[in-house]
Every structure is written in C-alpha cells, then in structure tokens.
Amino acid sequence: MVKAAKSYQQKYEKIMGESSEDELWSDIERDIAEFKKKVELGKADGYFWNMYFNLLRSNRLMFAGINEAFITGDMAYMLNGIYQENRFNCIYGNRANSGGAQTINFIEVVLAYSCNDYKLLERIMPFEAGPASSGYSAPYYNMVYAMTYHDDEVGKKAQAELSTFMEKKRTQFDLKLAKFFYDLYQKDVDGVNCGLQELCDLMGKCKWINEHIYGLDKDIQTLGKMVAIFIHGLYHIAMKFLEDSPLLDKIKMPEHKSFIKEYEEFNIEKNFPEPHNLINFDPIAKFINLSIKTEMIPEVSFSKSGRMYVNDGKRFEKRLFANLQKSKALPFELKEEKYKLPAVYKEFICKYDGLSLENGCTFYSLEELDAMNKDLQVNIYQPDTVAVGDDGGDLVFLMKQEKEAKTVYLVDAGDYDLESPYQIIPDFNKWMEKGFEIEDIDGEDVRGVDYGDLYLIKMPKEGVKGLVTIKRAFNLEMSTGELLQKSKSLPTKLLSNITSSKANIIAEKIGMPGLFEIR
C-alpha cells in the first residue's frame, strides 16, 4: 500500500490545497461558524442548504478520511469518511423533487454498502417502496433491493430485466455491471470474481457514476478515481449476500491499484464494523451530525407525476426539518425553501451569495431574494419564475423555477413577457464565464464592460501553489515554470482580451481578490 498511499497523499495535497487535515477541518468549522452568524441575525432560512453544500464541497470529508487512513494505516478513517460524506450527500440530494424515483439513490446505496451503513439502506431504499418501475439503473437497483431484502420474486424480475438490458447496446462498464449482478444472484462465484476485476479495470471510464460521486471538476475526479469506492461497494454487496454461504471464502478481491486491499482486510478482520462520524461537529453545532442520525433521516417517498413516479423531495425536506425541530437541537425554526431555484443558480449563490459587478449587474443574495421578488411583483406577473438579479437599470433577470433550468430571460422591468424579452441567455454558467456581458442587437456590450489585458500585480501568499491555481483558473497557455519566471518581475501580463467582470469573478472564486488588474 505504501506506493499507492504516497501517490494519493501527493495528489491530495496538490488538488485540495491543504497541507494537513487540521487545516481542512478548521475550514469546515469556518463554514459552520458563518451559518451560526446567520442564525444569530435571524436569517438562517435558506442558508441551511448552503451550509450543507459547503460541507460537501469537493468531497472533502471522504477524501480527508481516505488520506488519514493512508497516513496512519488505520482504515477506520476511510470507513468513517465515506460514511459521513455519503449520509450528508443523501440528505442534500433527496431534499429536492427529481425524476427517476427509487433509482436516484442507486449509487448512494452502493456507497452505503462500501462503508457497512446498512441502516441507511432502510431510509434511501425502503422495503415498503418496492422495486423501481422505471429509470436507466432500475435493473441494477432492483437486484440490489432483492438481495438486500431477500425477495426472490423481485430477484427473478430483476434477472429478466438484466437479461433484457444486456441485449441492448451499452457501454462496456454498464454491461459488465449488469453481468456482475446477474452472476451474483446466480451465485456464480467465477463470474462474480471476473466481474469485479473487469469493473475495477473499467471504473475510471464510467462517466455517469464518477460524475455523480465527484461532480464535473476534473481534478476532483482524478483524485476520486484513485480509490474505487464504488467497486468496494460492489465487493461488500457480494460479501453480504453470500455471508451464510460456503461460497463466501471464494470471493476474491480485484487486483488493481485503486482497490485498497488493506481496507477490505480491515473489514474482514473486524467483521465489517459499523461506521461512525469522521468529524465530530458537536462542539460547533449539535444539529449538524444529528441531522444524519438514522432516526432523523426520513424515508424517501415518491409521488406520481403524469405516468411517472418522482422523488418527493419537499416531503422529505419537511419531515427532516420536523425531526430536527422536535429534537430541540435547533435554536430557530427551519422552513422549506420558498423558491425552487435552478441548480446552476444554487451552485452560484452558494459560492457568492450575492454579487455586484462593475458593469452594473447585481445578483441577489439569499437574504435579498424574497424581498426583491416581492418588490418587483414577479410572483404576480410571472409566478413560475424567480428574479435572480438586474442590470442596475431597466432589465430584470428571470429564471424558471425548475431544477434543470439554465436559461436567463432579460426582461424589461415594466413588461415581464418571456415571449419577447430584451435578450435570452441560453446558459447561465456560460454567461458567467463571459463576465455577464449584455449585448445590444448589434452585438456590442451595452453595460460598459471593459476589455483589457490581465496583469498580476501581487504574488499570491501560497507562492508556487498559488501560481498553479491561477494558471488553472485563467487557463493560461504557459508552463508553471514560465509563470514563475514572470512572477519575479511584477506587474506582469498574464492574458489578453478579458473583461474586468470575468477577471473579478475568477479572482473571487479562487480566493485571490486584489492580486490582478485590467489594463
């Protein structure tokens, strides 16, 4: 494990930008401290989920646990990091309505197995909900459901679904995953062992699972792929399903650097122990860890939307808040989110929570959102939308109250007609990358956006590590060595033809305001 551990530690320090777990944990403490300030100001509503988002940012609980396990050799850290991360993720992910019904938790179910969190299965894969009737991963989900609850009727149905699934054109990973579950239910040990090995070899190429667990950040994905958590989950499913069978001893661990044998040797030696929290947040705020206790987590439930069943996130959220309120661990009353903010805007507001740009554009903070929408009477004239900002003049920025919405409608403050807006921005994130420019019909920016050359005027306090961050954030076409040489003669030009708005957004995002100038 020594070589794998050293490689992981180096990558962890480089990507996460932290030199020790102490610094990482203090960063989490600062996030919660910010939340407590909102509580003291009586403005906690809506910020609860911001705090959750910050806890989960960059999978840092799980990565910290794995890193500590490699440093100390104690695999309990890895077990507990996966456990705590996955539970927070389940709470955050199930709070909003979404399609797919039961299958939305398939990956979380496998990760729960990877850390022996069998109690969570009763909440996110409840027996009473039955098997999934639709969704791409329904055959996988239904087979795990059948094996978890020893339901032969569902198992036979899932076998047929897997057979049909394997007859169609799929990726190699998806076909191998279907074959693995099929063979496991058949108790074909050779097939199971072969499947685990092939899946481990292909795991790095499985886009839909890696993106679900690690998000879209390539660096975070790179770190995540160094430890095949999902494959560990499959291994645990096999071991649990065959625990009372003489075939158990014939299950083999995959031979791959991403499969941590020491972790499984620890699990076998300790008889697959119950996990615990990696980080004790109680001294800061007792409701944080309390929110992921089994008795606090509501069972997921589903409602019918047309011909399909969808995850009833609002019911989940309401029950969670009621459970926390009943515990008396919260010094205030939590309410449901008043607006169904699009996912892209939620991500933006979690990072910035309000932003004013030099071009006059303003994006409302969570505190301002309700008041501004009431003042603008958006709920009267366009009740299915939410105003997320304005241009400081006559334009209001509207987005539909839908999770997947990305389009921004720039409408006149006196006429909220979405059919004839001043401008339609197809993608919020791409608009942000361009510095939130607003163009007239001739294609010229009408908000006075300054284009110029980007200069580095101060050296980042992180030194070379900070320069690497700058290089990546601004996508500079120069080597780190070249950038280091240029930084020795400040001010130095880094980039041409960039707007001041875009430069400011990037600088804020990487925590380096005041280091740059547009000339």
From TrEMBL:
Q: Which InterPro entries match?
A: Knr4/Smi1-like_dom, Knr4/Smi1-like_sf
Its domain of life reads Bacteria
In this chain the Knr4/Smi1-like domain maps to: 336-433
Q: Name one Pfam family in it.
A: SMI1_KNR4
Q: Which residues form a coiled coil?
A: none
Q: What is this protein called?
A: Knr4/Smi1-like domain-containing protein
